[in-house]
Design brief:
The protein is mostly helical. It is built from 6 helices and no strands.
């Protein structure tokens, strides 16, 4: 009886990690697909003068495409964070990083729900997402290094700084008028990490299931 219960618990844990890994891979795919579609429907969009969130208040198909994409991406991100929590549960540092990443996912979903015509919530959600994500990655990088996963730790650390650097530069030298470019650069860093870790989670859970 105890063996059966343990196997059931392992199966559930494996499913959470595997599904979370898949969600981590799908999050950027879904987000950038809908952002791209929104940009296509709004030719006036400028990478140098606009924010990506400007797309969320454009009439016609643009706003629904953009906001729906972010909302669903937020849901994927939350599931990724849940799987990540199980994947990193060997140390409090990993658990903390995963919880903070979950909060970043909530902020991403909030951006899709509260568009620019809903101040101050949109601004709060946007700042929270782009601030919290690098913080969570720093903690997760620390977890990987503490558990002697040096390559993953170094990779995560590089991604954390890559996600933060566009904003540090923007607020110090103001290299563009709008924030679309720093948003894109920061998001791309997060995308790279999400896909790599998501794939590792998916493989690890699949191996656990087959054993």
């Amino acid at each position: 009886m105890s063996y059966a219960v343990n196997r059931l618990a392992e199966s559930r844990e494996s499913f959470r990690v595997r599904f979370g890994g898949l969600a981590g891979i799908l999050t950027p795919l879904f987000a950038f697909t809908f952002i791209g579609l929104a940009i296509i429907t709004y030719p006036q969009f400028s990478w140098f003068d606009n924010a990506l969130s400007d797309l969320g208040v454009v009439s016609g198909a643009t706003a629904p495409l953009f906001n729906f994409g972010l909302f669903v991406s937020g849901l994927f991100s939350l599931n990724f964070a849940i799987g990540l929590y199980k994947f990193l549960d060997k140390h409090i540092m990993g658990k903390t990083g995963a919880v903070i990443f979950f909060v970043a996912g909530l902020a991403l979903e909030g951006i899709g729900i509260a568009s620019e015509n809903n101040p101050p919530f949109h601004y709060i959600f946007s700042v929270a997402f782009f601030s919290i994500m690098p913080i969570s990655l720093l903690l997760i990088a620390r977890y990987f290094l503490l558990t002697h996963q040096t390559k993953l730790g170094t990779f995560t650390l590089i991604v954390a700084f890559s996600a933060a650097t566009p904003w540090v530069l923007y607020y110090n030298i103001h290299y563009v008028q709008g924030v679309a470019i720093p948003e894109l650069l920061s998001a791309l860093a997060g995308v790279a990490w999400s896909v790599v870790i998501g794939w590792k989670m998916f493989k690890a859970a699949s191996q656990l299931k087959s054993s």
